[in-house]
Amino acid sequence: MKFRKSILAGLMAFALGHTAHIASAETLRWGAAHDVYSMDPYSYGDSYTIAFLSHIYEGLVRYNADLKIEPSLATSWEVVGENTWRFNLRKDVKFHDGADFTAKDVLASLTRVSHPTSPLRGNLPAYKSAKIVDDYTIDIELTGPYPLLLNDLTNIHMFDEDWLVKNDSLLPTDVGGQKEGYATYNTNGTGPFKLESRVPDSKTILLKNEGWWDKPQHNIDKIEFTPITSAATRVAALLGGDVDFSESAPTQDLARLASAPGLRLLERTDLRTVFVGFQRREKLHNGDENQFNKLGVRQAFAHALDMDLIKKRIMRDKSRNAGTIIAPEIPGYVPELDTLYGYDVDKAKSLLKENGAEGFPFTLVCTYENYLNEEELCNGMVSMLTRAGFKPSLDIGPTAVQAPKRTAGQADAYILGWANEPMLDSYSILMQVIQTKSGVAGVFNWGGWSYPELDKLVTTASTEMDREKRLALQTRALEIVKKEIIQLPLHQQPIAWVLTDKVESVVQQADNKPRHWLTVLKK
C-alpha cells in the first residue's frame, strides 16, 4: 500500500460501488474473528468493540466516510472562553426506548466516561467539567488549551441519564478489572441499530432503528453478528455462504477466497501497529529479578526477532514491518525513526551475556484472537527468542482470560496493538500508553515504566496549539521510545475483508472499522 503525504488522503475510504438507494428489509450475517468485550462502550479501550457499538451508540461528532469530522448529536460548536467549548445539541433525537436526548444525558455521559474508574478516561484527557446551559446547549470546560477535543469526542458515546440511574449504571464497568453491570449486556443508544439479543461468544442481533434521526444510507433490517474464532471455520462459513461479511480473512487463505465464486476480497494495510510491551517493575510477577529493566536485554529481544521471516511465513507477506510505534499516516511519524533494529542472533546472545541475563526466564502473554495470526506470531517469537538465549514460556488464551493479567501488571511481556483512534494522532499512544501512569495518562502503561523527560514533552504537546510545534514535540518523544525500546514495534497488520455477492457496497477505511450504516445489500 502506497501512503500519501496527507493523512486524509492516506485514509481515504475505499467504497465498493457505494450507492444511496434503499431497498427492502435485508439481513447482514457478519462472521467476526472474535466477540466484542462488552455492550458498555466505556468498559475497555478496544477499538473493535467501540466500532461495533457505534452501530448502537453515537457521539456528539463522528467521522464520515472520508474520515473527516462532521456533526452527529451536536449540530454545531464554538469556543466561548479560553478553555470552554459550547455545543449545540440536535433536537428531536430519541433513545431506543423513546426517551428524549438532551443536555443532561451529555453531562451524565461525560461524568461517567471521565470517572477515575473508567477504562476510557484516557480518551478524553483534557476534560475538566461540563455545565448545562439549557436543554439543548452544554459547555465543556477543558484543563487548558487543547487542539484535539473534536477528535476525542468521536469515540465518546452518549447514554440516557435516566436509563443509567434506573439500572444502577452511573459508574462505568471495567472488562480488565472484571467489573460488570447492567450496561455490560444491555443497551439504550440513539444510533442506527438497536440491540435485540446477545449471547456472549455466540451471537448478537441488531435491528434497524426505525426512529433514527439521520437519513439511512443502508438497507439493512437486521445484523446477525457471530464470532467465529477458528480461522478454518470462518473460511468454511464464507465459502459455504453461511455468512455475508467478515472483517478478518485469514492471510493464509486469501488467494483461495479471492478466487472463490461469489466472494470479493478487499485488502489494504491497517493503521494499527502491533508491538511488544515489557514489564518494567523491579520484580517479575513470579518474584524473580526483572531483567527487562536493562536496556541491553530489551535490545537483545529486538535483535532476536527475524521480522522478515515473520512477515514472509506468518503474515504471508501482507504486513508492513515497523521500526516505530506509529504508522506512516499518523501525524508525528518521521521516516528516520522507522528503521528496524535488525535480526542478529549472535548480537542478541552477546547482549544477554554482557547483562548477566543468559537463559533469562519470562512469560509472554498472548491471546488466540486479538490480532491477526497472533497465535502463530507468539509461537514464532518464542522459538526465535529461545535460539537467542532467552528462556521464554508462552501463556496464551482467550482475551477474556488474558486481559486482566495485562492490566494488573501480571504479564512479563505481552502483545498490544494501537491504531491511535479516535484521535488519528501520535498524541494518543504517547499519552495513553507511553506516559507514566497518572490520572488520565498511562491508562495502558501496563508495565509501570516512567520517563520524566518524555512525560514533559507529551505534557507540553498537549497544550501546544501550533500544529507543527506540537508534532515536533511528539516526534522527540517517539525518539525516546525507540532509543529506550519502551515498546518494541513489530508490524502494521494487513486488513482483509471478504464479502459475498449479496453485499452490493461497503466502505473500507484504514482504521479497519466496519460501518454498516453505510452498507447496502443487493435486492
Task: Report on the architecture of this protein.
This protein is α+β, with helices and mostly antiparallel strands. 27% of the residues lie in helices and 23% in strands. It has 16 helices and 21 strands. A hairpin with a 2-residue loop joins strand 5 and strand 6 (84-89). Helix 14 (427-434) packs across helix 15 (452-461). The longest helix is centred in the C-terminal third of the chain and has 18 residues, at 467-484. The two termini are 33 Å apart.
Summarize the structure.
With 523 residues, the chain is an alpha+beta fold. The chain has 16 helices and 21 strands.
Task: Note the topology.
Blueprint: H1 7-10, E1 14-15, E2 27-32, H2 47-53, E3 61-63, E4 69-71, E5 74-81, E6 84-89, H3 103-113, E7 127-134, E8 137-142, H4 149-153, H5 161-166, H6 182-185, E9 193-199, E10 203-208, E11 222-227, H7 231-239, E12 245-246, H8 254-259, E13 263-278, H9 295-304, H10 307-314, E14 320-321, H11 345-354, E15 361-367, H12 374-387, E16 391-397, H13 399-407, E17 413-418, H14 427-434, H15 452-461, H16 467-484, E18 487-500, E19 503-505, E20 507-508, E21 520-521
Parallel strand pairs: 2-11, 15-16, 15-17
Antiparallel strand pairs: 1-20, 3-4, 5-6, 6-8, 7-8, 9-10, 10-11, 12-18, 13-17, 13-18, 14-18, 19-21
Helix pairs in contact: 9-11, 14-15, 15-16
List keywords for this structure.
single chain; 523 residues; alpha+beta; Dipeptide-binding Protein, domain 1; Dipeptide-binding Protein, domain 3; seven-stranded mixed β-sheet; four-stranded mixed β-sheet; 16 helices; 21 strands; 27% helix; globular; disordered N terminus
